[in-house]
Design a protein that fits this description.
By secondary structure, the protein is of the alpha+beta class. The protein has one domain (about 1-45). The chain has one helix and three strands, in the order E-E-H-E. The protein has one helix at about 25-35, and strands spanning about 1-10, 15-20, 40-45. A three-stranded antiparallel beta sheet has the order 2-1-3, covered by helices on one side. A hairpin with a 5-residue loop joins strand 1 and strand 2 (about 15-20). The chain is elongated and about 35 Å long. The mean pLDDT is about 95.
């Protein structure tokens, strides 16, 4: 599945990326690996429902 993940860092920088992952937790963990701990984060599944 593909998720559109938005990560807002404590310094208020916004990062947005499409991430291929099995779950939202995995997609969010990937973004935290890239950009560090998030102040706010959301992951929204993209595409049609199965």
């Amino acid at each position: 599945m593909t998720f559109k993940v938005t990560h807002i860092a404590p310094d208020l920088r916004k990062h947005q990326q499409l991430v291929d992952a099995a779950t939202t937790a995995q997609a969010q963990a990937w973004m935290e690996q890239l950009y560090g701990v998030a102040l706010v984060m959301s992951a929204i599944r993209q595409g049609a429902r199965p």
